[in-house]
Amino acid sequence: MTHNISNTTLNAGISLPTYDRKRLKAKIVHLGFGAFHRAHQALITSEVLAKTSADWGICEINLFGGEELITQLRAQDHLYSVAEKGADTTTVKIIGSVIESLHPTFDGQQAVLEKMAEEQVAIVSMTITEKGYCIDPATGCLDKNNALIKADLITPSEPTSAIAYIVEALRIRRVRNIQPFTVMSCDNIQGNGHVARAAVLDFANLVAPELANWIKTNVTFPCTMVDRIVPAATAETLSEITDLLGVSDPCGIACEPFIQWVIEDNFVNGHPDWNLACAEFVPDVVPFEEMKLRMLNGSHSFLAYLGYLGGYAHISDTMTNEHYRKAAFDMMMKAQAPTLNMPEGTDLNTYAKLLIDRYSNPSLKHQTWQIAMDGSQKISQRMGGSLRFHLQNETDYRWLAMGIAGWMVYVSGVDEKGNAIDVRDPMSEQFKTIYQQHGKNRSVVKALLGIEAIFSTDLIKNDQFVDEVSKAYELIISKGARNAVASL
Questions:
Q1: Which strand ranges, in their side-by-side order, compose the sheet holding 253-255?
Q2: What would you report as the CA-atom Rg of the chain, rounded to the nearest whole angstrom?
Q3: Pairing of strands 98-102, 141-142
Q4: How far apart are CA 30 and CA 13, in angstroms?
Q5: How many CB atoms sit inside 10 A of residue 262's CB?
Q6: Judging by DSSP bridges, how do beta strands 56-61 and 25-31 pair with one another?
Q7: How do beta strands 182-185 and 260-264 pair?
Q8: 398 in Cβ contact with 472 (< 8 Å)
Q9: 21-282 fold
């Protein structure tokens, strides 16, 4: 079925990109054509193309799943729509920066590798989630026991993981004497460029040490900080987009109006002038990344677990409860902001207020359940650094303790009304085993804190911290999440 996105089929006030898409070349290969990328990097690139005569086109690749999405994208000439939904108004944009797409299922691994090895490709970017990097969270190094990595080490020229694809594509470029590309992670991971670099170099070292040395010398891995709330597309979203557009768009996505992208200026082969849209190139992304991870992502996780347990389906629903609203703001300003080291002139109070406004946007149906996914991969990044700061300085961290306790109750797999929670997490089996041993008792806290892949060993040795989390846990179990949040 062809979804004819053309100026004749679109509703009044909505039009195709005005730039000539024929001038574009696939200079960016992006791994992970998911919701976030569609509403963020691809959109920002499209806005740069509208302002310049640049030729930076994107080739989209989904390595796992998403076959149908790629098929639908091809059926509409790689055009798709983004609906930016404010509290009062919605703006619809047609994105034209994507010009090609590949999937190993249809096109084969070699076609993907050949695309990544093409001379004009200057950047390979990624939104593959934490899991896609195949890193052992305890060591920060490549997880050699990861099933994908094990298979890829046996046949590196027939990769399955994103990391192995990158290494093999760089090997081909080196053999053919083609300049390398920049590897740019756009995942919501602390030091995402460093994580990507560690995974790529570890894998390359295991396959061919001389290739690893060449990558170390010639390839850069800039860190980035990305921010935009992009809920997963639902049937309701797609129906709404059809009404707004005048034509159906199965690749369409809805998001908030706010958008931010901070990029370490460290590219080996050029980059688009993303700063002409809304991006900011900086020498060091770390302060901005910490700000977002702790203030936004940390409070988001807090609201996801305690909101879900409190019976709230969406983040905006939690904001209708004054206790949740105040707790989220206090967590940002009292538990997280004091731990940050920001460039001069950064106004964290304004940033926190802006976040509360964004959370309150009722047009965004951002599910607490969706944000609660993969907590084992996120919780230490979002709360661990701040916890260490407060424990060293003997300052107040009760919001962090409550957030961790909320996560612990959530992963029990049973909510306050006795209903099953669909816990999506790579460690869910381990949580199940722990709960079978302990039940919903105080002793479960120490067992969960003892998982070294999530929590560093210094935390479980701190009796005061264990006690604080245990008290918060017992409060949620006995009085319910809403009362526990109100107690803060």
A1: 90-95, 80-85, 253-255
A2: 23
A3: unpaired
A4: 30
A5: 21
A6: parallel
A7: unpaired
A8: yes
A9: Rossmann fold (3.40.50)
CATH of domain 286-487: 1.10.1040.10
- Is this structure's pTM higher than 0.70? yes
Write a three-state SS string for 1-66: CCCCCCCCCCCCCCCCCCCCHHHCEEEEEEECCCHHHHHCHHHHHHHHHHHCCCCEEEEEECCCCC
Q: In what order do the strands lie in the sheet with 182-185?
A: 98-102, 56-61, 25-31, 123-126, 182-185
Give the C-alpha separation, 201 to 207, whole Å.
Answer: 10
User: What does the block give as tokens for 320?
Assistant: 């209708």
Residue with structure tokens 């306050």? 416
Of 99, 95, 77, give the one whose Cα is nearest residue 14.
95
pLDDT tens digits in sequence order for the chain, 488 residues long: 346 788 888 999 999 999 999 999 999 999 999 999 999 999 999 999 999 999 999 999 999 999 999 999 999 999 999 999 998 899 999 999 999 999 999 999 999 999 999 999 999 999 999 899 999 977 889 999 999 999 999 999 999 999 999 999 999 999 999 999 999 999 988 899 999 999 999 999 999 999 999 999 999 999 999 999 898 888 999 999 999 999 999 999 999 999 999 999 999 999 999 999 999 999 999 999 899 999 999 999 999 999 999 999 999 999 999 999 999 999 999 999 999 999 888 899 999 999 999 999 998 888 999 999 999 989 998 999 999 999 999 999 999 999 999 999 999 999 999 999 999 999 999 999 999 999 999 999 999 999 998 998 889 899 999 999 999 999 999 999 999 999 99
C-beta of residue 230 within 8 angstroms of C-beta of residue 253: yes
What are the beta bridge partners of residue 182? 123
Q: Which of 440, 481, 424 is nearest to 306 (CA)?
A: 481
Number of H helices, E strands in the chain: 24, 13
DSSP 366: -
CATH topology agreement for domains 21-282 and 286-487: no
Alpha carbon of 448 to those of 406, 431, 443: distances in Å?
A: 12, 8, 9
For the chain, the helix, strand and coil percentages under 3-state DSSP, each to the nearest 5: 50, 10, 35
Contact at 8 Å (CB) between 231 and 373?
A: no
Phi, psi angles (nearest 5°) of residue 281:
-90, 130
To 10 degrees, the CA torsion angle through 173, 187, 34, 153? 50
Chain centroid, CA 277 distance in Å: 21
For the chain, the domains span: 21-282, 286-487
